[in-house]
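Lab notebook, page 48
Experiment: co-folding of the full assembly
Goal: obtain a model of how the components sit together before planning crosslinking
Operator: M.T.
Materials (sequences as entered):
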Amino acid sequence: MSSPLPHERRVDPIARLVQALGRLPGIGEKSATRLAFFIMRQGRDFAQDLATALLEATERVGLCETCMNLTDELQCGICRDARRDPTVLCVVETVQDLRAIERSREFAGQYHVLHGTLAPLEGIGPDQLKVKELLVRLRAGGCEVKELILATNPSVEGEATALYLQKLLTPLGFEVTRIASGLPIGGDLEYADPATISRAIAGRRHM
Amino acid sequence: MSSPLPHERRVDPIARLVQALGRLPGIGEKSATRLAFFIMRQGRDFAQDLATALLEATERVGLCETCMNLTDELQCGICRDARRDPTVLCVVETVQDLRAIERSREFAGQYHVLHGTLAPLEGIGPDQLKVKELLVRLRAGGCEVKELILATNPSVEGEATALYLQKLLTPLGFEVTRIASGLPIGGDLEYADPATISRAIAGRRHM
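Observation: model returned without errors.
Model output:
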């Protein structure tokens, strides 16, 4: 029997749900099937909750008009927080990176989210990132930013983006800094990759 | 700073989506966050597709009135398929198990889904399973079932459930069989657990 059984020919709601869940990253057909059956066992209220959360998040959430963080208001909570230092601006690749920095509770300034990194081979230049928005913000009257911390990731693309921004921003009179790279806390020299070790040595400090 | 930052106090739509996704099995907070950001990058149409699939699956899908399989009609496709053998009934724990057997294309009879196994300690007795529905079906006029294949899993609960059904069904005059247990195809004696090996030896056949 190589032809499908009759009951498999029609796309039924279960198959459709499995298909929809399978489009999520890291969720293959088996996981999608397990999730679909779990959801069907939970019933309608559970599904309704998740469906509402999906629609609200994609309908009500947009970009903060100032820093490009995600928010359901005009300005995000960080930009609206008067207690944060307006003289230091941390430039990150993604909203996830912004959140990671917030979790560390180490930074009390403002942010700017680029929404990506330069990737010329994929056709992503400065115009595809939120670079123009950054310049508009820095040139606006009342802008108090003195230092820009480039917190793009220490990857090839992140470094290239940081270098591009440094060349763009230094001539405008800003102090431009880069987050440190080196061995992660709790890391072990024995297992660190050569690039990380070389960066840790190059970035050594007096103590 | 041990108190939450002001922008974290309000439950925003993103946090709500992360929370809703985090209720799915095997999806922790990190995965839920990654999924939420992925969904927001995809945008409204993507979320709408998934939301619709969720609602349709939980609203339109119910149990087949005959075999307790999931279906969006009164009877599932297998029960409606006149080419399937009405004299052999395969009893399974879950719809997922039914689907696994269907994928093997080894079985052309009918099914009955118990929706669980006996678990007295968790308060799951025969009344919590679809046992009554099985008896009603077997006693109905026009029922052609001769053999019942007990295809519950070879676990403690599955074996107990099979034993219970065997004692219930044999006196009614049915031929009751149990699926074979032993080493899986491609398995290796060296790595097989003792229970599987002992079952494989006890179930040995002439060749």
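Interpretation: The two ends of chain A are 74 Å apart (CA to CA).
Next step: discuss with group before ordering constructs.
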